[in-house]
């Protein structure tokens, strides 16, 4: 199952539009998918102590652990990923171990395209996640209120969906043969 996580709490989130488009692409590839919208599952911020015991965090860990691959859709604020994304990963920690991860970002401008690097580094080093080298970075001019208006952006989402499905299947097959 490919888990797609929308990490924005904004009602008109562009990163949520990216996540929804990615889910459709994964479904067209006949891959099981699950959409998790953090707006409807608000988690406590990670405090390194009791937040891990919160029932919503326990449920989120189970979802991440059960996924064969993860697509993480997030907004970029002030040249960095939003706090909800970081806290979600901190709260669910070890469930990310060995998972393939694809990234979708929505930002106001073109200057923040490397804002995900610290997050990617943490996923790779802390949890040995396989980060897809292709990621989707979209700017405001590629959207029209509640829809993606750019064909090239849609093609990049399709390519990311192909990659996450391929890598997740390859890793599951490798586990079966070992």
Structure notes:
- The chain is an alpha/beta fold.
- The chain has one domain (2-177): Flavodoxin domain (Rossmann fold).
- Helices cover 42% and strands 22% of the residues.
- The protein has helices at residues 14-28, 55-66, 83-92, 117-127, 151-177; strands at 2-6, 33-37, 69-77, 80-81, 100-107, 130-131, 136-139, 143-144, 147-148.
- The strands form two sheets. Strands 1, 2, 3, 4, 5, 6 and 7 form a seven-stranded mixed sheet that branches. Strands 8-9 form a two-stranded antiparallel ribbon.
- A hairpin with a 2-residue loop joins strand 8 (143-144) and strand 9 (147-148).
- The radius of gyration is 15 Å and the shape is globular.
- The model has no long low-confidence stretch (mean pLDDT 91).
Write the layout of secondary structure elements.
Elements: E1 2-6, H1 14-28, E2 33-37, H2 55-66, E3 69-77, E4 80-81, H3 83-92, E5 100-107, H4 117-127, E6 130-131, E7 136-139, E8 143-144, E9 147-148, H5 151-177
Parallel strand pairs: 1-2, 1-3, 3-5, 5-6, 5-7
Antiparallel strand pairs: 3-4, 8-9
Helix pairs in contact: 1-5
């Amino acid at each position: 199952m490919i888990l797609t996580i929308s990490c924005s709490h904004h009602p008109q989130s562009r990163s949520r539009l990216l996540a929804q488009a990615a889910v459709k692409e994964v479904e067209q590839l006949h891959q099981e998918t699950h959409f998790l919208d953090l707006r409807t599952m608000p988690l406590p911020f990670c405090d390194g102590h009791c937040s891990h015991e919160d029932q919503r965090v326990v449920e989120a860990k189970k979802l991440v652990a059960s996924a064969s691959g993860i697509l993480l859709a997030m907004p970029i604020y002030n040249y960095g990923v939003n706090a909800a994304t970081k806290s979600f990963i901190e709260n669910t920690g070890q469930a990310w171990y060995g998972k393939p991860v694809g990234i979708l970002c929505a930002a106001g401008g073109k200057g923040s395209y490397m804002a995900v690097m610290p997050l990617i580094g943490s996923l790779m080093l802390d949890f040995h996640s396989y980060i897809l080298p292709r990621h989707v970075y979209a700017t405001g001019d590629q959207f029209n209120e509640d829809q993606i208006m750019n064909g090239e952006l849609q093609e990049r989402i399709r390519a990311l969906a192909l990659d996450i499905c391929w890598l997740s299947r390859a890793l599951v097959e490798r586990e079966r043969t070992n």
